[in-house]
Amino acid sequence: MRLTDLPAAGKAEKAKMPPAAWLFFQRWMANPKSMGSITPSSAALRKLVRENIVCGPDEVVVEFGGGTGAITRALLEAGIPGERVYSFELDNQLARYLRGAFPDINVIADDCRKAAELLGPEIVGRVGTVVICIPTATLPPSVQREVVDAAFSIMPRGNRFILYTYMPKSTLNQKALNIRGKRLDWTPLNVPPASVWGYWRDEQPA
Ligand SMILES: C[S@@+](CC[C@H](N)C(=O)[O-])C[C@H]1O[C@@H](n2cnc3c(N)ncnc32)[C@H](O)[C@@H]1O
To answer: Which domain does 26 fall in, by range?
Structure first.
């Protein structure tokens, strides 16, 4: 789809859109590559993510790319207390929105590739699941590697991260990244239809 195919973003359209969707759309126009989608994840995708979160009683969950919080909401719906949710968001406007919408969670307005350094020794090693929400399909291989390494660097050995994608196949080059992936589930009820994948290093997926 080209930008010119979209409806003019005038007052009428803004009035019809919920604030999160409107902000998401605006940030997509400003930075389409980093956003990866023109609309936040659906309730159906949120459910798939919720069902695939692993978080022990003393663990936290870390999100890479909070956006307007569709997946953040899934983490809270999974019963994880806000103070044990950490969301990295590079875009300052979106980080500010997330802080307002989810005052109990920890929003880190910075690059998820710095996760180990920014979370510090108190959190590193206590991360049950990393949820990668940044658009991995369009990342250069070197950046894919940095994001994947950042996810594994904060979890105990053997844990897996999850991500969602609109692609029919894995968006990560498993051989090059020394990881093993498995499509955990998918839903047609997202725009576009989406799959949730889990990726392991060191261990074969069950
Ligand atoms: C597809 S949006 C995800 C939004 C939300 N999780 C959802 O599912 O609706 C991707 C988000 O990742 C953020 N992002 C991209 N690269 C990032 C990075 N290196 N570190 C942190 N956030 C990043 C973008 O600003 C954008 O908000």
So the answer is: 7-200
Number of folded domains that form the chain? 1
Q: Note whether residue 177 is domain-resident.
A: yes
90 lines ligand 1 (CB under 6 A): yes
pLDDT tens column, 73-99: 999 999 999 999 999 999 999 999 999
| Residue 89, domain CATH | 3.40.50.150
Say if ligand 1 is within 6 A of residue 88 CB. yes
CA of 133 to the centre of ligand 1 (A): 6
DSSP string, 32-45: HHHH-SSSPPPHHH
Specify the residue for token string 């105990």.
156
- The C-alpha atoms of residue 128 and residue 108 are separated, in whole angstroms, by 18
CB of residue 45 inside a 6 A radius of ligand 1: no
Instruction: Provide the whole-model pTM.
Output: 0.89
- 2 belongs to a structural domain: no
